[in-house]
Amino acid sequence: MRAGALRHRVAIQQPVTSTPEGQAEPVVTYVPFALDAWASVEPLNGREFFAAGGRQAEVSHRVRLRYLAGVKADMRVLHEGRALDIKAVIDPQERHRELVLMCLELQP
């Protein structure tokens, strides 16, 4: 992976579920997993569907970054004030050199 292609600074957050006292419903908050990771954020044109596990999820962005152990599909990427929900984590050729994250932009 060429370093010049990684021109965006992103943060990756992981969800933490807690149930405050007196409430029946759990509350999901996000805490930092990786701060200031260099990545390539590519918006996808039109509609692109990614089939994973028998489900289909619409994706709006492809995020490429150097391999980072522990990144999961329940996390999200923050980029320029926008939140991108990770739908799939791909390790091309399973060589642990880069990750491709298929993401859906969350609306505020």
Write up what this structure looks like.
This protein has one domain: Protein of unknown function DUF3599 (Thrombin, subunit H, Beta Barrel), CATH 2.40.10. Helix content is about 0%, strand content about 65%. The relative contact order is 0.24. The protein has about 110 residues and is mainly β. A hairpin with a 7-residue loop joins β5 and β6. A six-stranded antiparallel β-barrel has the order 1-2-3-6-5-4. It is built from no helices and six strands.
In short:
This protein has strands at residues 8-18, 27-52, 55-66, 76-79, 82-90, 98-105. The chain has 108 residues and is mainly β. It has one domain: Protein of unknown function DUF3599 (Thrombin, subunit H, Beta Barrel).
The CATH homologous superfamily corresponds to Protein of unknown function DUF3599
The topology string of helices and strands comes to EEEEEE
In CATH, the architecture is Beta Barrel
Question: How many DSSP E strands?
Answer: 6
CATH class: Mainly Beta
Give the overall form.
Answer: elongated
List keywords for this structure.
6 strands, Thrombin, subunit H, mainly beta, 108 residues, elongated, six-stranded antiparallel β-barrel
